[in-house]
Design goal:
CATH architecture of the largest domain in chain A: 3-Layer(aba) Sandwich
Oligomer: homodimer
CATH superfamily of the largest domain in chain A: Glutaconate Coenzyme A-transferase
Number of helices of chain A: 16
Chain lengths: 484, 484
């Protein structure tokens, strides 16, 4: 695969961003590339934000995108509807005050929902590319749902971004599952295998405009690991070391996934210290974060599969400066492959995701503060937590300098149910909930995971609730008394 | 496949039930066959119930079993732990008063949890069979997790039940997925296809005892459809007729699943009146109920795949009297195939499950009254609701003669989240929640699904909650004021 030096191969309807934006109807449903805050279109959204029409767009991304969409377009009041995830304060505010109708969706099934499921009726796709030909494009720093989106529209606008390093072309593996109801199984036998093409194909008649840009992603900034992060990592490490010894299924390899964010990144990096004997570590997740580069550099990770290079700016530089070497072991897939329930199952993935809070019975809130105010969205955490062979939720036991417990009597929003969660880890310890009844889970969470300052209060709640009896004892009058 | 006339082929360690029961340790973890209230062992559990030792068993079934286990053994105080589902009042009472430690699990992943995931450390499997050989058995009226359970133990007790008609042998298709992390895809290309064997194989050294019985299942009793059932069925029918016209993916076939129980059974039967043009209907679910026999008899259903013949006594007679004909179109699979996320996805299943209550934002409670008291368990509803292309929840808008609304401000136990549920149907109408924000969902549920007697009160709650703002507005002080 060679990226043409000029990045535009063939005759193209090259226009400036304003012209392309002007062709998008004021109330259009726009599917955009982007996942993990990278690989999203930049010039056309900025032009739309400057458009003097009264826009009322529906914007569907793959996952998290940058400020050109979730700040500029939001502040221009141009977005009426937004799917499936947002991570910037202006977008979050608009979702919470009801000015944007937001719908929070699982990553793994979003492509199907758009293409087959009637989630939206799309008008146009605007996607960032490294290069574009007559009937193909090479994606940039993320794949996300771009293949499904390109398949779902008959009008396509491509932003060719010269700021994206051409070495990116080596990472992509674009495989498309067929259409239900006669969809074949995905023929991927190993997380690091390649089964597709480096480019996305499209109907040449669909290509309405090409816009040339030269603007870098606005990538993640990871905070430095906190003391809590390090303590959580140490607890997770010792649990995983015991678990791989216990279960013969991990004799040869351990396939891991970590959630997006600073804690996930810190946990990935901390694995470098773990002793898994001579087992191969393999990553099968949705994002490549900086912590994985450490594991790759130290030879502890055989391969890494994801849908996005969600790296810091420093991590991007590190990857691109040795892209050929990294591309041997790093594969970017469409998000409906990276997060596919069938593959998470077949690979026996151990999933580690973070959360806002966990309740005494193992229900997990990943998205809503006080049950009402959404933060970012469920992302892929549900895909992995639900389908992994072993599902771990990792979080500090408190926030706000200890003023709020993250282990609560009842979560006011459930993203992952008691049926899906196996293990909770905090900086205090590990609660292995497998095989336990709800009452037993509550005891374990109080003694192993809750902060000591909250154990008595949690026990008081449990005692009161248990007086009423029940398999999952609750006192509904006071279940939310800890919520602000 | 011929069932030997004597049903015992080869030399067998035939013993009476008391002797077999006596070999089970007082605190053993016992894996039992059974799903959908049929195909469970009967004689050994009854003998255990009469055992004068102080038993403290862990009992893991495939799904619902009969009174020999969930009544007799429970009333004998012989069960300390129970997985993954129970449906008899004594077992339910014991789970709710805490004398049985119950853990409610998804059907689709339970086999893996037992075999690979460390859910329990099993000692012995006790399974019902139609016939048994040196290293094989033919299951009876359900397959459930019997193949995974037989693979998980080195001690096997088989009950050969002469009351089970030998024609059953024609229904089974036992295919086993390999072990993760190198598990291959399941090579099933069509719901009615056969890819396995009619029997379950086992290590001949594991066969510890064979017990001969002659005792029928205690099968389901379906109530007659109520007016609400008929109104729900009519609403569902008209919605599905529109949906298959709208979405090209249903052009040739519609693959359906219905939940277990009287409402599900009534909905299956009511489909006979639907007009799906010349599309083939195919059933891909977990149980065959009486309603499906009507569709098969009328030639409206091409094939039906499930893991249990959860029929009424009358339905059993009807099936067995024409077993050869029905076996052409009806396939029984292991529960980890019938409920497999990968297959539900590939077949583009339309899933219809019932629930206890639904909240204004589309969260579903399937298991707990008032958040505390478990009824039966989540069963396979989560497998289908999470992985179907279109997930419908069907329920009457009220219970107790209208005294309690099933559309509530907030459910006090979440089994299926807002991320998984597409459509709600009650006798009042249909709320198509796809693509909607939580606030929009609430409006739709109030106007389309709630009983008119509760619409004002729901709107009052919504107005009060929305004053506080938020993507999913709640007023936590009064969110549960409707719960008893």
């Amino acid at each position: 695969m060679i990226v043409p030096r000029e990045r535009l191969s063939g005759d193209h309807p090259v226009v400036d961003a304003e012209t392309a934006a002007g062709r998008i109807e004021a109330d259009a449903t726009v599917l955009v590339s982007g996942f993990g805050s990278v690989g999203y279109p930049k010039a056309v959204p900025l032009a739309l934000a400057d458009d003097d029409r009264n826009l009322s767009l529906t914007v569907v991304s793959g996952g998290s995108v940058g400020k050109e969409i979730d700040v500029a377009l939001v502040e221009a009041d141009a977005i009426a509807r937004r799917y499936p995830y947002q991570a910037r304060p202006p977008a979050r505010r608009a979702c919470n005050d009801g000015t944007i109708a937001f719908s929070d969706r699982h990553v793994g099934s979003l492509g199907d929902e758009v293409q087959f499921g009637g989630l939206v009726d799309p008008d146009v796709a605007v996607v960032e590319a490294l290069a574009v030909g007559k009937d193909w494009l090479i994606p940039s720093t993320s794949l996300g749902h771009t293949p499904a989106y390109v398949d779902s529209v008959d009008r396509l606008i491509v932003e060719v971004n010269r700021a994206q390093p051409r070495e990116l072309a080596g990472f992509h593996d674009v495989y498309r599952p067929g259409r239900p109801p006669d969809r074949e199984a995905v023929p991927l036998s190993e997380p690091g295998e390649r089964i597709g093409e480096p480019r996305i194909e499209f109907d040449p008649d669909a290509l309405e405009a090409v816009v040339e840009t030269e603007r870098r992603d606005e990538p993640y900034e990871f905070r430095d690991p906190t003391d809590d992060d390090r303590a959580i990592a140490a607890n997770l490490q010792s649990f995983l070391e015991r678990e791989v010894e216990r279960a013969p299924i991990y004799d040869d390899t351990v396939r891991l996934q970590f959630g997006v964010g600073s804690l996930g990144n810190a946990l990935m990096g901390a694995l470098a210290a773990a002793d898994f004997g001579d087992r191969d570590l393999v990553y099968y997740g949705e994002v490549i974060q900086d912590g994985l580069l450490d594991l790759l550099d130290e030879g502890q990770l055989r391969s890494a599969s994801a849908t996005s290079l969600a790296l810091s700016a420093e991590g991007q530089d590190r990857l691109f400066s040795a892209a050929n070497r990294y591309a041997e072991d790093v594969v970017l897939r469409p998000a409906d492959i990276s997060n596919r329930p069938a593959l998470i199952d077949r690979f026996g993935v151990v999933a580690v995701n973070s959360a806002l809070e966990v309740d005494l019975y193992g229900h997990v809130n990943s998205t809503h503060a006080n049950g009402s105010r959404v933060l970012n969205g469920v992302g892929g955490s549900g895909d992995f937590t639900r389908n992994a062979l072993l599902s771990v939720i990792a979080l500090p036991s408190t926030i706000e300098d200890g003023d709020i417990s993250r282990i609560v009597p009842m979560v006011p929003h459930v993203d992952h149910t008691e049926h899906d969660v196996d293990v909770i880890v905090t900086e205090q310890g590990i609660a292995d909930l497998r095989g336990t009844s709800p009452r037993e889970r509550a005891q374990l969470l109080v003694t192993e995971c809750a902060h000591p300052a909250y154990r008595d209060r949690l026990t008081t709640y449990l005692d009161r609730a248990t007086e009423n009896g029940g398999h999952t004892p609750h006192d509904l009058d006071t279940a939310f008394s800890w919520q602000e």
